[in-house]
């Protein structure tokens, strides 16, 4: 019987074998978007960013005033703290995107990569809403999620058939579901499929309503 959930401790201890092939591309996409949406010198929050694989390039090329990471995986957070023990811009917070408290501060940009698809539809909507709860009016949310293109379905089917699939609770989303979740929260500024990831993801930029 296959596991019902993704084992994130194992993932952070030994990242998925294709991860190194896609991280640089995703990081370059994020940096471009952050640069074009006021990320330079901004306050940035990454949801689901334990041991973030994007933080180094963002800190180097965007130079945010602060970079906070929220995740509920302690191992991943500990690994990240070890990487940035003295950088005053970086803060790690243990928390669940589905049960966040009232924010102590609001951020200019809130983003997540491959997070909101790990819940049922109601949980996905709550996870999306959490991004906007921590975002200042007029701020920008950048959210990526897998989408079931023919390429995604083919690659995932092969990975499952060969017992190489580890994201057992991943639920690829169609854009319409995401648009429904943000209908009262913000306006979509751009949406595109990141085909080079092979396991294709939508990357959507949303401006929070003032």
Topology (elements, then pairings):
Elements: H1 8-13, H2 19-36, E1 43-47, H3 55-61, E2 66-71, H4 74-83, E3 90-94, E4 107-113, H5 121-133, E5 135-146, H6 150-161, H7 175-181, E6 186-194, E7 201-208
Parallel strand pairs: 1-2, 1-4, 2-3, 4-5
Antiparallel strand pairs: 5-7, 6-7
Description:
With 210 residues, the protein is α/β, with parallel strands linked by helices. The chain has a single domain, classed as Vaccinia Virus protein VP39 (Rossmann fold, 3-Layer(aba) Sandwich), CATH 3.40.50.150. It is built from seven helices and seven strands. The longest helix is centred in the N-terminal third of the chain and has 18 residues. The mean pLDDT is 92.
């Amino acid at each position: 019987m296959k596991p019902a959930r993704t084992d994130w401790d194992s993932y952070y201890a030994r990242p998925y074998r294709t991860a190194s092939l896609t991280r640089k591309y995703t990081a370059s996409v994020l940096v471009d978007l952050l640069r074009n949406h006021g990320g330079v010198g901004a306050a940035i929050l990454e949801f689901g960013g334990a041991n973030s694989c994007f933080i180094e390039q963002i800190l180097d090329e965007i130079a945010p005033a602060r970079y906070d990471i929220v995740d509920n995986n302690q191992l991943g957070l500990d690994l990240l703290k070890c990487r940035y023990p003295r950088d005053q811009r970086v803060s790690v917070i243990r928390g669940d995107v589905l049960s966040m408290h009232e924010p102590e501060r609001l951020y200019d940009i809130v983003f997540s990569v491959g997070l909101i698809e790990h819940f049922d539809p109601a949980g996905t909507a709550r996870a999306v809403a959490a991004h906007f709860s921590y975002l200042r009016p007029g701020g920008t949310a950048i959210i990526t999620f897998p989408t079931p293109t023919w390429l995604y379905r083919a690659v995932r089917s092969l990975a499952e058939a060969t017992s190489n699939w580890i994201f057992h609770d991943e639920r690829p989303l169609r854009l319409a579901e995401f648009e429904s979740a943000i209908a009262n929260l913000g306006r979509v500024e751009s949406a595109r499929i990141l085909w080079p990831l092979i396991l294709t993801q939508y990357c959507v930029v949303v401006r929070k309503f003032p």
